[in-house]
Amino acid sequence: MSSPPLEHGRLSPQTRPYAIGYMVCIGAMGLAMPVVAMTFRYLHPNGVLAALVAALPAAPLVGAMAFLGLWVRAEPDEYQRAVRVEAMLWALGVVFAVYTMLGFLMVWGPLGASKISAGLLLALIFPAWLTIYSGAVGLVRRRYR
Question: Which of 55, 67, 110, 140 lies in disulfide reach of 22, CB 3.0 to 4.6 Å?
Fold first, then answer.
């Protein structure tokens, strides 16, 4: 059986490029967010430029999603791969359930569209999934012990 992904603080050689790419993309998104906020606050772009600037933080997130998938595919340890895939499925289910409930609460319930921005909720889908996935990895690993 091959070593776990972070044994001795190191990633396996097969997954290291994908993990690094993933971390670079998440860092780029973290840098893009204040740039976009400052651009809209001080420069007030319009039209196509406004759409391009608003979409800027999404590009690194798409890259992060791709690297995460490639990372799982390149994982040589079947146990580690199975843990990650199961955690991804649990996270997907939780995000679907929560966002479906929020959607109904916004349409017919106390969270009317005037109280919560639908755009903000949509922008937080992947970060919410990633947060739940990170916790689910630990729970799934604990269950297999």
Answer: 67
- Distance in angstroms (rounded) separating the CA atoms of residues 51 and 22: 25
pLDDT at 67 over 80: yes
Structure tokens at 14: 């097969």
Over residues 88-104, mean pLDDT? 94
Residue 98 burial class via C-beta count within 10 angstroms: exposed 0-12, middle 13-18, buried 19 and up = middle
Q: What is the pTM of this model?
A: 0.80
Distance between start and end Cα atoms, the chain? 16
For residue 1, the model assigns a pLDDT of: 34
What's the mean pLDDT when you consider all of the chain? Answer: 88
Q: Residue 14 to residues 10, 20, 77, 113, 139: CA-CA distances in angstroms?
A: 11, 12, 10, 46, 24
Which pairs from 12-16 meet CB under 8 Å and 24+ separation? 12/75, 12/76, 12/77, 14/74, 14/75, 14/76, 15/71, 15/74, 15/75, 15/76
Pairwise CA distance, residues 49 & 40, whole Å: 11
Q: What residues contact residue 77 under an 8 Å CB cut-off, 6+ apart?
A: 1, 2, 3, 4, 5, 12
**The residue type at 133:** Y
